[in-house]
Design a protein that fits this description.
Largest sheet: 7 strands, mixed
Order of helices and strands: HHHHEHEHEHEHEHEE
Helix content: 40-55%
Shape: globular
Number of helices: 9
Structural class: alpha/beta
Strand content: 15-25%
Bound molecules: S-adenosyl-L-homocysteine, 3,4-dihydroxybenzoic acid, magnesium ion
């Protein structure tokens, strides 16, 4: 029941509940399990199983064929989305760290998705312009350096088709969204830019997930 407390942000989840719903709705096959198990030396900062599953369902629901992801890590979210792409569909996933990209490519190959998911090594702001030859895109998923979210959001607005979807992870900025610092300003610029040009919502996942459809 959406009572007064839950509308104000109170959550009823617990580790037991999260484990249960992930097991029932978002269980891992061997490829997702491999990509979820981030090796030592690489931070385990991938989306959660339910957010990954939601990304997959949004790809499937929208019939997306061309997707850009900023922030690959080792391919967990990319594999979720890649699984929902139709034949001939393509996901370009941008990763700054060459070591992360190397592990991601192995995980994507193990998932049988090497023909659909391409990892492009470099910084988002440098790589995004090189992908414009493939525009317009159906989905742009932003999950990399938080101080550039406003730039990534503006790029998404310019390079998505009408009706195309922007998605942004960590939209609460680890609890710092309303703080007075550069990353806070960039993340608020992302929110406000999306709201101005998209029909949008910030889904109350643990760290907030913006979803918008370009008007
Ligand atoms: N989307 C992934 C998680 C990404 S974590 C998943 O859910 O599975 C964020 C990633 O962004 C890290 O691998 C980090 O190296 C990368 N990154 C950081 N700054 C970046 C930049 N400027 N351009 C591209 N990638 C960047
Ligand atoms: C970090 C990045 C993320 O995208 C995330 O979902 C969690 C943590 C990080 O840089 O620490
Ligand atoms: Mg994230």
């Amino acid at each position: 029941m959406a009572d007064q407390d839950s509308r104000a942000g109170k959550r009823y989840d617990s580790k037991a509940i999260i484990d249960y719903v992930n097991r029932v709705h978002a269980s891992h096959d061997s490829a997702l399990a491999q990509a979820f198990a981030v090796p030592d030396g690489i931070p385990a900062i991938q989306v959660g199983p339910s957010e990954g599953r939601l990304l997959q369902l949004l790809v499937k629901l929208s019939g997306a064929k061309k997707i850009v992801e900023v922030g690959t890590l080792v391919g967990y979210s990319a594999i979720h989305m890649g699984k929902a792409l139709p034949a001939g569909g393509k996901l370009w996933s941008i990763e700054y760290d060459a070591k992360h990209a190397e592990v991601a490519r192995k995980n994507i190959a193990a998932a049988g998705l090497s023909d659909k998911v391409e990892v492009v090594v470099g910084a988002g702001v440098a790589v995004l312009p090189t992908l414009e030859a493939h525009a317009p895109f159906d989905i742009v998923f932003i999950d990399a350096d938080k101080q550039n979210y406003d730039k990534y959001g503006a790029w998404a607005q310019a390079n998505l088709r009408t009706g195309g979807m922007v998605i942004g992870d960590n939209a609460y900025l680890f609890g710092e969204l309303t703080d007075d610092h550069e990353r806070g300003r960039a993340m608020r610029g992302f929110h406000e830019g999306v709201a101005a040009a998209f029909d949008s919502v910030c889904v109350p996942t643990p760290d907030g997930l913006v979803v918008g459809l370009k008007r």
